[in-house]
Amino acid sequence: MLMLIRLRLDAIKIYRRKKLLMVKSQKPLIISALFAAMTVVLTSFAPISIGNGYIHAGDSIIYLVSCVLPFPYAIFVAIIGGALSDTLTGYAIFIIPTIVIKALITLPYTSKNDKILTIRNAIMTIPAGIITVIGYFITELIIFGWSVAIYDWLGNLIQAAGSAVLFFIIATALDKIKFKQNIPKDINC
């Protein structure tokens, strides 16, 4: 009888340990899902139409999350947020290129500092913007031809620049309230 009680207590300890590990490992995914939802909302529900696309604030959230969360989670946010936004706004033809482009724009940033807006992350808005402009230029060139690609490149440039400016504003505000220092350390940021 004593042995059964002991086995039962051991089983409870193992269950609690697994449950604790599961809860800790789900935190980054939950935070990523929230950022992905923010990306979708800011992209899909507040766009400004231009040519064959639209200008939106969603990329600024992708820049932000790339500076806050570890690399795989930032890519998750970029891919899910971008693909869902293209679906919701009627640009489903751009889903595959968007997945590639949005994943690539997360690469230049780092989440290893205590601040979001570091000199490095500020400068990295330039390569992220170049990736956006060139990526969508090539996409539109393949799908629609030269005339549309040349017509829309300026809109993509404005999109990238606007996202960078909005990222600077949001990152500065979040750094003032020490947002990054208040994120639980168990999500590996």
| Rg over alpha carbons | 21 Å
Strand order of the largest sheet: 1-2
Any idea of the CATH topology? Arp2/3 complex 21 kDa subunit ARPC3
Order of helices and strands: HEEHHHHHH
Protein model, in words:
- This protein is mainly alpha-helical and 189 residues long.
- The protein has one domain (2-187): Orthogonal Bundle (Arp2/3 complex 21 kDa subunit ARPC3).
- 74% of the residues lie in helices and 3% in strands.
- It has helices spanning 2-44, 58-68, 71-88, 95-106, 119-123, 125-143, 146-176; strands at 48-50, 53-55.
- Strands 1-2 form a two-stranded antiparallel sheet.
In terms of topology, how is this protein built?
Blueprint: H1 2-44, E1 48-50, E2 53-55, H2 58-68, H3 71-88, H4 95-106, H5 119-123, H6 125-143, H7 146-176
Antiparallel strand pairs: 1-2
Helix pairs in contact: 1-2, 1-3, 2-3, 2-7, 3-4, 4-6, 6-7
